[in-house]
Amino acid sequence: MTEKVKNLIVGCGLSGMTAAAELAARGERVLIVDRREHIGGNIFDARDGQTGITVHRYGPHVFHTNDEKVWNYLSRFTDWHYFMYRVKALIDGREVNIPFNLDSLHRVFGRKTAETLEEKLVCRFGFNRRVPIGELKNADDADLRFLGQYVYEKVFAGYTAKQWGMSLAELDASVGERVPVYTGRDDRYFHDKYQAVPDRGYTAMSARMLDNPLIEVRLATDFRDVRGKISYERLFYSGAVDEYFDYEFGRLPYRSAEIVFVTRDCEYAQSGPQINYPENYDFTRSVEYKYYLDERSDKTVVSYEYPQAFAEGKNERFYPVPRAENEALYRHYADRAAALQNVYFFGRLGDYRYYNMDEAVRRALDLIEGVK
Ligand SMILES: Cc1cc2nc3c(=O)[nH]c(=O)nc-3n(C[C@H](O)[C@H](O)[C@H](O)COP(=O)(O)OP(=O)(O)OC[C@H]3O[C@@H](n4cnc5c(N)ncnc54)[C@H](O)[C@@H]3O)c2cc1C
Question: Is-above-0.90 flag for pTM?
């Protein structure tokens, strides 16, 4: 016999959970399924059994937003550990602030060169401004052009080639031109008004979002296995849009990563939460998790991220690959999706778009608000 539900949500990530919480708040019943064995999708975190440190299984997550509505919305489900993210990159063997700023100049160049560049940057663009390197590379001053090229090569090119596994020429060219240099000493990675991590972790926040008697969660349940066995009035689908249509037009490419976690027998292993490696090694970044909630232990957990292509059954879809031909392929699926009745695609997989967490929440809130 076919099971009947009012709202079926596929995907128990941040997008699916926001939709579920909103529908339930309206008094509607929801069944949410996920093929994984845990809630939260890619924001899932858990305490490491050996050290007690909260580890983000799918890579480090810091919530940051200027969207007041989203901040207030998530604040209903969690208190926050306020946390300004700081990232360093190892360039020519030295740890340098990323985004590249005036202090970075003094880390990589001798005093005279650094002072000359600093003066030129501040005179030309003002103090504390964000200057895309495309602008530096095209400047009428040879020193500024040199700096633009230096940052492009040292900070961007190597990291990006590793991250995407292809030459820069094959990627959307505008990405490289937008890499910023800051003409100030603010070393924060993000500049949003709100920056934090849920104080008891993302999984605790997720559990609160789902804590409504109108929401039923079924884990280890793949939509492909229940398709046709559950009938619904509405389907909210935050899984991969190409998979929903059985790859009718071909597969949408994603980049993934193998994340290797290592426990080290020391209090701290690195100088901050994230170090990027544009030049050395096969991994792109190393991440030390105790920094995120300022947790204490005499040991520490660090992860190393090795980018690789997404392959079904082997790893997870992380990032849509930013190329015009992939966007064109996605458009075919988007047209098919738009023609369906009472089926709504959303989330980073449903929309084939990289969303930060705040954007994923906003997209789900707007979607549900628009559905009568
Ligand atoms: C490495 C990495 C680091 C990130 N760091 C940050 C950060 O620091 N700050 C930030 O704001 N954002 C960050 N993000 C983005 C953030 O992870 C996303 O915004 C968020 O996870 C999107 O949630 P989602 O629900 O759309 O997708 P997901 O979390 O991927 O959820 C989709 C869910 O659908 C399930 N699913 C798919 N197909 C099926 C099916 N057929 N049947 C059943 N279930 C299915 C999947 O198992 C998955 O759990 C990062 C992303 C990555 C990849």
Answer: yes
